[in-house]
From TrEMBL:
UniProt-recorded name of the protein: Cytochrome C oxidase Cbb3
Keywords, alphabetical: Heme, Iron, Metal-binding, Signal
First and last residue of the signal peptide: 1-20
SUPFAM superfamilies, A to Z: C-terminal (heme d1) domain of cytochrome cd1-nitrite reductase, Cytochrome c
Transmembrane segments: none
Domain of life of the native organism: Bacteria
Pfam family, one: Cytochrome_CBB3
């Protein structure tokens, strides 16, 4: 008897492989939520600009996402069709997506059930609330900063990134997702106020010192969207230099200057937009700079160059270059923090490409020390009331470690690693600096609370892939040890 050279199961699979038609599958299964043009509807935009850093798209299509409307399609689509669909949504769109002022205005959705209140609906200190962004299932948990009880847990737009921004009284918070939605949440009533889509792909947001203007930095379209405190769009600023559009890498609030400062991705300029009348000031620089860190008085800005080998200090008052800092290995200035050391102010920045923290004297911009760590880190935190700086090791085999560094000796005094092999990163202090919260950055993750003095663990709160944590007081007072 002649044996068949292919198995029956493979023969059955062949027509399925031949039939994979991702465009048709998209139209049938995905368009209803994510829109025919893939720019998003009730579900997020499915374009490389917003999905770029999302891992495991196949698994999401197959199994869905817990606690979201995204259902799994494993029963209806073959593995080949799912793989084809995953690469289809990662294919750039043929026509440049469009998102103009009228589309922004039309996207505004206010919560009809929202009722403001005269005082918080809880007994906890409203200025010691800490928000935890849970990227695992796109939620934020609202923690009482004294007891660490979860007061509320609410759904956010898809893929929240960057620090949420609090109104100056700490009552409201604005949260941004990578696909351009800005959500407003009332901490006193524990309720969403509304949301609006400021762009198709956004980077971060900033708030004016009076809380009346929200600025949204966008990659797509290349622009800065200005909203009022009630999420009404006020202006869409086209960030074009010499006729060529430039993406906005990030926008920063400069409270003393009453301005927003913009890092432009594609042009050798820094822009400053007055928060009162939105007048634009353009500061020419030698090369595009990114990932800004500011002196506490906001007169000087340090940006990283594209090659990731130096920091450039610019005087924002006169636009002059003050210094160049040798910072090889991709400094992550945006995570920089400052503190007083021996009567002088120093700043520290992690490096994304090297296991080192650079400590710089902010008076003469000299390098004080490079602290060797167990691998490249992403985030740093300190607090005026604490003698320590907390530095994670985000990348590499030691991603499970958190270094605690003495602010004076600049030596690592302790390395915490309670979850071997799992990412342990991003720290935040409570209002009084007595406790530190660290993320077990995994899907079945946790926030671990430490006594900031003894460095002993005091509590574990289960969370879904917690990323950043943000204490109201530390943010609205621009506490030294927090990145802004
Ligand atoms: Fe971030 C803050 C840019 C990748 C998590 N990140 C920021 C800010 C900027 C920035 C400009 C400051 C915004 C603010 O708070 O107003 N991030 C970038 C990048 O350019 C980069 C390297 C590439 C990218 O894809 O955009 C990048 N960031 C990441 C991640 O991969 C992280 C680890 C996971 C994620 O959620 O995407 C990540 N970024 C964060 C977090 C903050 C942040 C948690 C807020 C830190 C804080 O404590 O304030």
């Amino acid at each position: 008897m002649i044996r068949p050279i292919v198995s029956i199961s493979l023969l059955l699979a062949l027509p399925l492989m031949a039939q994979a038609d991702p465009a048709a599958d998209y139209a049938e299964h995905c368009a209803v939520c994510h829109a025919e043009d893939r720019l998003g509807g009730t579900g997020p935009a499915l374009i490389p600009e917003t999905l770029g850093r999302l891992r495991g798209i196949d698994a999401v299509i197959a199994q869905g996402r817990v606690s979201t409307q995204m259902e799994g399609f494993a029963g209806r689509l073959s593995p080949q069709a799912i793989t084809a669909l995953a690469s289809y949504v990662m294919t750039p769109l043929e026509n440049r997506p469009h998102w103009d002022a009228s589309q922004i205005a039309a996207s505004r959705e206010m919560n009809a059930d929202y009722q403001p209140a005269d005082r918080p609906v809880f007994a906890a200190d409203p200025l010691n609330i800490t928000l935890v962004v849970e990227t695992g299932d796109h939620h934020v948990s609202v923690l009482d900063g004294d007891t660490f009880a979860v007061l509320d847990r609410f759904a956010t737009p898809f893929a929240v990134h960057g620090g949420p921004k609090f109104s100056p009284d700490g009552r409201f918070v604005y949260i941004m997702s990578r696909d351009g939605w800005v959500q407003k949440y009332d901490i006193w009533t524990l309720a969403e106020v509304g949301r609006i889509r400021a762009a198709l792909n956004s980077r971060n947001i900033a708030i004016s010192p009076d809380g009346q203007r929200i600025a949204v930095a966008n990659y797509l379209p290349e622009s800065l969207t200005i909203l009022d405190a009630d999420l009404n769009p006020l202006r869409l600023i086209d960030t074009r230099v010499g006729g060529i559009p430039s993406r906005v890498s990030a926008v920063y609030q400069a409270p003393q200057r009453e301005s927003f400062v913009l890092a432009l991705k594609d042009a050798p300029e820094i822009w400053e937009v007055a928060t009162a009348d939105l007048a634009i000031r353009r500061i020419p620089i030698d090369e595009p700079l990114d990932d800004f860190f500011f002196s506490p008085d906001y007169r000087q800005v340090i940006g990283a160059n594209r090659d990731g080998d130096k920091g450039v200090v610019i005087d924002l008052d006169n636009g002059h270059k003050l210094a160049e800092l040798p910072l090889p290995g991709m400094p992550h200035l945006g995570s920089g923090i400052t503190w007083e050391r021996g009567g002088r102010r120093v700043m520290a920045t992690p490096h994304l490409g090297e296991g080192v923290l650079s400590v710089i004297d902010m008076q003469d911009w000299g390098l004080v020390k490079q602290i060797r760590t167990d691998g490249p880190g992403f985030f740093l935190r300190g607090h005026a009331a604490s003698p320590y700086v907390w530095a994670d090791v985000f990348f590499g085999p030691h991603k499970d470690k958190m270094h605690v560094i003495d602010k004076n000796t600049l030596e690592i005094v302790k390395t915490l690693a309670p979850f071997p092999g799992q990412t342990f990163a991003h720290s935040e202090f409570t209002r009084d600096g007595s406790h530190v919260l660290v993320s077990l950055w995994e899907d079945e993750g946790a926030v671990v609370v430490y006594d900031a003095r003894t460095l002993n663990e005091v509590k574990r709160l289960p969370m879904r892939k917690p990323s950043g944590k943000y204490n109201v007081w530390n943010k609205i007072t621009f506490e030294d040890g927090t990145s802004h």
